[in-house]
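Q&A log
Question type: sequence-to-structure
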Amino acid sequence: MKKVISSTIAVAALAAAPFAANAADSSDPIIIPTHNWSSQIVMSHVVGQMFESMGNNVEFVSTDSQAVYESVRLGDVTLELEVWEGAFGVAFNEALAKGGLHDVGDHNAVTREDWWYPLWTKDHCPGLPDWEALNECAALFATPETGDKGRFLGGPVDWLKHDAERVEALGMNFTVVNAGSAAAIWAEIAAAEKTMKPVVVFNWTPNFAEAVWPGEFVEFPEYFEGCKEDASLGPNPNMTYDCGNPANGYLKKAAWDGMKDKWPKAYGVLTKLSFTNPQIAEMAKLVDVDEMEPEDAATIWLENNKDVWMPWLQ
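Response status: OK
Response body:
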């Protein structure tokens, strides 16, 4: 059952807080991009409602998660709240080098994005989490779609995880099939749980899934700087992507260079805010488990965590 809360009432309630007496920055809207995973969408609405409580206007726009950094750089959108090192570090750094956007600091959260399996899968392939053991068990994951090769369900194509390149570089007997959305990954795990069918999928932390389905990340050759750019540096001297993703990745915030002058008070809040793994997981849970709309999930999160975010607005 979805819990619906009037966004007008929600914003009015937030605006009643004593710190909300601050005057608005520019009357132009702060444009916040949303992508295709729940924590980012909810976090965007959490921060958007915080900005609205200060008297700012906010607009949300659905944006490609790779192209967004060019949009921020050009000022077409104002900021990005979840820059995941593994998925978006390259696009972020490329835009950073061009100028027009900047790093606004890290969240407290530590990220990991990689191949993952629910723990019941280990009962069928006891050598896990070692990637070579997984490869020896590839036949367990075969489907009519993949023939005699194992099926790995990757994230949406625009997350650019380069799983197919890794499979080729490490000589793995797997075929990568990309999910259309994060929801499709959760559906895959939930369906497998009914019969304890072994599955291996793309997953990440922080998100709600780690509390619902205990599991482990596959341990590939350890990530090191250059393994995705210089073939000579990894275990396969002829190919790149012969490594895992960073096991302790950053989660950054980015902003258009003009934000600090156009919306100085909102920008000041952006520099202060920093979410933890459990806080981000809770944001995702409100949508993916409790089935709330993102706007309502943001309002509930704000109501339940006033001690976290109110100091950022003071």
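Response note: The radius of gyration is 21 Å.
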